[in-house]
Amino acid sequence: MTRFKTALTLVAAAGLALGSVTAQARDFRLGLITPPAHIWTQAATDFAQELRDQSHGQHRVSVFPSQQLGNEAQMVQQLQTGALDMAFLTIAEISNRVPDFGALYAPYLVEDIDQAAALLQSDAASRLLDQLPGSVGVVGIGYGMAGMRQVLSRAAVEGPGDLKGKKLRITPFEPIRDFYTALGSAPTPLPLPGVYDALANGQVDAIDMDFDSILVLKFYERANHLLLSNHMMFPMVGVVSGRVWRELSDDDKTLIQTLMKAQLDKVIDQFRQQERDQEQQLRDLNIQIVEADRATFADAIQRWEATWSKKAKALDGLRQAAQDVKGS
């Protein structure tokens, strides 16, 4: 009889343990704005597969690219309520809510992709993530990035003066809007999937874009004048809903943080490695290229600084950090 009771106790304990594991299993949803072919989406898909493998099938992640769950503002709202679990977001939407993040878009904060990568992996940039739980209701896991920003135009462009009055596609956020407004352009927010057709039908005259998207999404087919300026870096942040994060075990938090951060680091490395090759690919195409530098945009930079030095208190610290990592 004692052995029978012991066996029952063991079976019950095993059942409780199994029930605990089952209760912790999660089907997560991860949203982002980029199309399936984009590096960010590929990284999200790789993260989903690794989380499933490392959790032995306990956790699954469904990836929703191309704004399937809405634009970034809508996704942030879903993250805040817990309706969306995770996202890879441009810093654009974050900077609309936490102005300090706008400092990462300071014109010529960095000179090239290598300095941009080093800055995003610095302690100064990491400290900005500490503001996210309280200000946005999300947990920042780490940064990714896209390539340095350029201007691709349907008509010839020799410098910033040729962009005055032009409808120029931007990602919808204040720092880049203010930069192009300072140039005298008409900044026009437009989702990435709609950019090709907008160039084709003349809805926009030019776009703010990186080498990768210009090539992968073939924007050069509709606009063949490139102002090669490297005027801004373009960070991305991987986040988890604060509501969802609080429900996770410490082990699951560590697993998700480790795997997502590794994919974000790979995104940075991939853009670093391909930037020069992609520039050469564009030079090999039948497009007109004009180079520009900080001095070319001096007036617009001064006007931008007058606004954002007051809005983003982190700007001075990030400038110093950018100098500290230069050449690293």
Automatic annotation (TrEMBL):
<feature type="signal peptide">
    <location>
        <begin position="1"/>
        <end position="25"/>
    </location>
</feature>
<keyword id="KW-0732">Signal</keyword>
<protein>
    <submittedName>
        <fullName>TRAP transporter substrate-binding protein</fullName>
    </submittedName>
</protein>
<dbReference type="InterPro" id="IPR038404">
    <property type="entry name" value="TRAP_DctP_sf"/>
</dbReference>
<dbReference type="Pfam" id="PF03480">
    <property type="entry name" value="DctP"/>
</dbReference>
<dbReference type="InterPro" id="IPR018389">
    <property type="entry name" value="DctP_fam"/>
</dbReference>
<keyword id="KW-0175">Coiled coil</keyword>
<feature type="coiled-coil region">
    <location>
        <begin position="261"/>
        <end position="295"/>
    </location>
</feature>
